[in-house]
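=== Per-residue structure ===
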Amino acid sequence: MSISVQVIDSTNGCPVEDLAVTLHTREHGAWHEVAGARTDSAGKVGSLSDRALPYGSYRLVFETGEYFAERAVDTLYAEVVVSLHYQGDPSRLHVPLLLSPFSYTTYRGNVPRTDAVGQA
């Protein structure tokens, strides 16, 4: 399994570029960082790990306070933490984040299967 993300600033409808995102896994009752990256010009990180990840508990940490501070925008969130327990399709998990200074929404995104021949 790999985990990808995309961050959109819902106040202006634009991708959030250069936002720090870290991926953690839970082992022996504690969180351990697996990988980190920054979003690209489309607000995306294609994969947060260079290796296949097993099923289990994960945490994504989006450094949203840094993003808003650089824009001199007051925000409630110093960071957004999304904790999830993944037991589904082992190929890929996509987690979009819709962000504004005082709210956010996240959901399980749809990632097209790459093994389906002849399908878009």
